[in-house]
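Teaching assistant's notes for section 4

Start the section by putting this record on the projector. Ask students to predict, before seeing the second block, whether Nitroreductase will look compact or extended. Collect guesses on the board.
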Amino acid sequence: MSEWQERNDKVIAEFHANGGKVEGWAQLILLTIKGAKTGKRYVTPLMYVPDGDRILAVASKGGYPTHPVWYKNLLVNPDVTVEVGTEKFETVARILTGEERAEAYAKAEKVFPPYAEYKTKTDREIPVIALDRPKK
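Reveal the predicted structure now:
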């Protein structure tokens, strides 16, 4: 098992043991996505931005020049499971574009100011993903 996977496994275990809270982390979701090549389900801890009845996820990868693997998987398999706190729901991830994406990214920068720096470190447009809660 890779060092990265071991770290993620510890974060996931702490998230489940503490109702979604992980010491030393900002607010997190667990996003379960099916792998594009393997079809295996992967759980990824991600910071998130609350936005009304939806959650915003930012595929920043710290401003690296390539998209994170979880985002590439999401493009192929947008049906995801979201865990936030003790809530768990299934949804179809939606990649935001244009003005909606710009507004969502600005919200994300207010929640986590390093996002402003990340966008200056890369030539790619950092994707913002909307995870809508199911209608009741």
